[in-house]
Amino acid sequence: MTALTAPATAPRTSGGPRLTVWLLRLHRPALYTWVLFVLLAAALLLALRGPLADAAADGWRHFDACQDYSTCRYDQNAILRYKDGYDYATVALSALPLAVAAWAGAALVGRELESGTATLTWSQAVSPARWLTLRLAVPALAVTAGSGLLVLLHHLAWSAGRGRIFTAKPWYDTWTFHANGPTTVALALAGLAAGAFAGLLWRRALPALVLALLFTAALRALVEKVMPHLWPAVTTVGSLRQGAPGWGVYVDEGLVTSTGAHVPRPPCYSSAECGAAYARLDVVGNYHTFHPYSHYWPLQLTTTAALLAVTGLLVTAAFLVLRRRTGALRTAPEASA
Fold it and tell me: How do the domains of the chain map onto residue ranges?
């Protein structure tokens, strides 16, 4: 590939604040879209915490008080409005890291390299190092502030329905778990870094968008696999008839033999076949390994830390790619007053 070059003799007079203002002007449509999204999502979440949750809770209370369901009257629409609103808000928050990754890959970095705007900027205003630093730092502040507010409001909205609304999602529901905590913020920052890295790697908007999307989606799937193993889980044992008690984030389950060993369930498809298999193994009960609600914050914080570590690696990789494309990174001197 042809290396990008930043002329060493180019005048560099723009200071940090002016460069930040210029960056905000350049990406004004994205900024307006982001602010509008945060405001609309916040309004929906506040409604879910207040009037929508109260109306749905009243609907379920009237339903539970019914003696004859054929003539029972309750506000089913209120229940459905809360359910639909909650689902929309949760899906929007879950898709947020993908949207950030796509924008960062296509518009923030890829398009400017493809059009040559970045090279022109390096020759007239700012060094490649500062150019990339601002493109990561300014959006990171906006993403952290906006997504942090939304996950807080989502947690409050979920709490308002907990124990009051029969159809409210449990805390360990995978979409609810992440929308309720800082893992969504960390994944959005990872998407931002992945988009910048993809844009520098491909120098074209569309391939960078696709690569950033794929990487962020794969990272989200990997988080689901790894998260239950980032904190010690709890194991309960129960009889074959009643099963092992406990609900939460699933880790493992199986059978307990008379020696106390934990073994996986053998493949069987009928009561007689399973009974014979259990007898051969000398099975006496079941075990269930999971994370209870008390593990919510340990899981959130350990997963967030892991995602931030990945984000740091992606940022480092982005600077290394930029260095390879432009030569030694030079920090622009401060503008004279």
Answer: 27-227+296-326, 234-293
